[in-house]
Fold this protein.
Amino acid sequence: MGSSTVYGQEKKEKKDKNAPPQKGSLYLSPVPVIGANPAFGFIYGVGGSASWFMGDPSTTKISNALLGVAFTTKKQTIVTLKSTVYGENNDFILLGDWRYLDSSQPTWGLGTGPQSAKLASNDFGFDDGSIEGNSEADMMEFRFFRFYETFLKRVNDKGFYAGLGIHVDMFRNIQDQLLDLESTPQIITPYYAYNEAYGFDQEKSTLVGISLNGVYDTRDNINNPYAGGYAMINFKINPEFMGSDQSSTQLWMEYRDYFDFTDDHQNILAIWTYANLSISGDLPYMNLPAIGWDQYSKSGEPYSQGRFRGSNLMFAGVEFRKHLLATKNNPDFFGAVVYANATTASGKANGINLFEYVEPGYGLGLRFNINKKARTNVGIDYGWGNYGTSGLFLRLNENF
């Protein structure tokens, strides 16, 4: 009698594990965080992906949240929570981007081009090709808090949404360690020079705004799209009366598309492009458009976050995803990708124009599917770029 009961429980558990997705189905995928790049050194920590259905999967897209807690050999702490939530029957979308960083990075020059690696007026430059990079004493230290939430209501059944967002960025305890005003001649950094020119505080900055948003989203799955497209336009208004240091406006325009050449998800070409533009007023230096500061911090491989920064920035990337190996229990178990991208940024303060310099990136990677129902992938990428840049990246879900 006892053995029969145990057998029945095992059979039920196996059935539940293989049950098709339904409303409320939750898929958790923990993964270690490992990486390396010149600005952060070696990165280690833990991350996790949670995917779930707010409604019937036949009429509701899967939602996802990514949580990461990481530390680096340059004594940095990085805590992030990124989310895309689809309401029941895709009635609404909620986009979240929360971050806390006790971090540091070089104060790269503005715009793309050779001057972007020039960190100070004494011609001191950043060694992109070395994991050791510059010493910690050459970095700009800071604490950063971000709270972004955007609510979008479905407009029609064609995939169009419209809505509002609130956006808070606070940088505190900024220490520009390479700056030396006591030396002869003085050593001036791009960060210090920008703040002096545009009237910003050297030790802190605040940017608070609201946004008007339009989204077109027909992707079949946000974790690993096989089909559909995505477009977003975001106009952000940052008035002083809401807490911003200075009033300004910004415009974000984005487009993604996916092409399945074999109709069985074995060979997919994915493209992603966006423009991040300063429309009016002046932004704090750390809020200027910069590579790697998108919602999921995945643009610009293999360059470090913030490596290219300017008044305006444009990015375009293409990725070919190839399925390689299936298992008995997972037909999408293993694959590989090759990618290429390009970034251009302007420097208002130094006369660098968009497209005057275009910085390429390229690389390859492996993909391991760790949850076939949620399409959750673990990605390991290695890439190369200009100025001797190279980097190793561990990703949860596809880059876009």
